[in-house]
C-alpha cells in the first residue's frame, strides 16, 4: 500500500505496450501510488504506430533517463518467472480471489458457487483494448472453424469510442461474427443507472463510466471501487434495504430524486418504473 511499483527485467520486453499499460492500471488493485515500466522498443513502436512519432523520437533521445539508474536500490524486490505463470480466473465477488483454470471448477463446486455461464462480457480496464478485441476475434474464428456453438450470450463494450471505431474500421467486429452466428451485443456509450449485488466492482474498473453510467446502486461495494467511482464522477449508492435489489428488473426504468439537495447522510428516493406502467418506491 502506498508504494511506487516499478516493473522491470528481461520479461518486460516480451509484453506489448498495451499489456504494460494494463498492468500499470491494475496497480491500483494492490494499493500502489503509481506503477511504471522502463522505456523500451515496445513503447517506441506503439508511439510510431499511433501517429506520435515526434514523442517517440523525443523518448529515444532521452531513453537513458527513462530506465532504472545503475545500482539503484529498491525497498522490496519481487521476482516473477513469466514461464511459470498459469492462466488464472479471478473472482467471484472480488478480484483478489484468483484460481488457476485447472482448479477453479473443483473450487467452485466446493464453495457452491454458480457454475452456469449465462452471459459473457468483454469489457473493463483489463480486457477491452484494441489488442484484446483482436484476440477475442481470433478465438471466436477458431471456435467457429471447429464447429463450436455459443450456448450463452455475450456483450462487448470497447474500452473507448476510439477503440470501437477502430475495431469497426478494421472489421474486428465482423471477424467476431457477432451479427451472424454468435448471440452477442456491442454496446455503445449509453446513460443510466447500474444495479449491482454484493461487493460490486473491481477496483479501477471503468465499465460504468464507459457505458455512460451516472449512478450505481448496490447492496455493497468492493474495496476501493467506490472511491474510484467518485473520482470518475459517478454516484455510488447503496440500498437502505438490501432486499429492494430484488424489486428491480432489467427492463425497468429508474428515476433518482433529491439530487439537488443531496448531502452526506441524506437519503435519496428511487422510483422504479415497470413496463406495465406501475411504479414502486423502495423504502
Automatic annotation (TrEMBL):
Residue ranges of every copy of the Aconitase/3-isopropylmalate dehydratase large subunit alpha/beta/alpha domain listed in the record: 2-176
Iron-sulfur listed as a keyword: yes
InterPro entries per UniProt: Acoase/IPM_deHydtase_lsu_aba (IPR001030), Aconitase/3IPM_dehydase_swvl (IPR015928), Aconitase/IPM_isomerase (IPR050926), Aconitase_4Fe-4S_dom (IPR036008), Aconitase_dom2 (IPR015932), AconitaseA/IPMdHydase_ssu_swvl (IPR000573)
Cellular component GO terms, alphabetical: cytosol; mitochondrion
Listed GO biological process terms: tricarboxylic acid cycle
Residues covered by the Aconitase A/isopropylmalate dehydratase small subunit swivel domain: 180-241
One Pfam family named in its UniProt record: Aconitase
Co-factor(s): [4Fe-4S] cluster
Signal peptide: none
Keywords tagged on the record: 4Fe-4S, Iron, Iron-sulfur, Metal-binding
Keyword Transmembrane tagged: no
Domain of life per record: Eukaryota
MF GO annotations: 4 iron, 4 sulfur cluster binding; aconitate hydratase activity
Membership in a protein family: Belongs to the aconitase/IPM isomerase family.
PANTHER family xrefs: ACONITATE HYDRATASE B (PTHR43160), ACONITATE HYDRATASE, MITOCHONDRIAL (PTHR43160:SF3)
Protein name as annotated: Aconitate hydratase, mitochondrial
